[in-house]
Amino acid sequence: MLWFQGNSMQLAKYSFQLLLRNLSSKTLLPVLTLFTKDPCPLCDEAKETLEPYKNRFILQEVDITLPENSAWYERYKFDIPVFHLNGQFLMMHRADISKLEKQLQKLEQQGIGGWRAPS
Fold first, then answer.
1. Does the global pTM surpass 0.85?
2. Residues of 92-113 as b/e, b for ≥16 C-beta within 10 angstroms?
3. Most exposed residue of 43, 76, 81, 106, measured as fewest CB within 10 angstroms of its CB?
């Protein structure tokens, strides 16, 4: 998978656990990854913005300051918050709800990963 290139084994393992948990549910949800650090007021603001949409994706947070995430730190240290949707770059600096909504609808229409909107 392209998503795991340059990532630590721990991130890959965590992502795999999310996938397994997701597969055991009736509805597959896309994974929205938030690259963040502590403190990050912009990240906190972005998470608040995403709160009404939390039932449409699984939020995975990656602390870029941890040693095992140094590749992400080098890539995003000046740009957090950064979001990936299902391993693909989506947005940075803020949560763009219209962009997120458009991509979630596209995933639903294409049925990527078996994802279907909850009924």
1. no
2. beebbeeebeebbeebeeeeee
3. 106
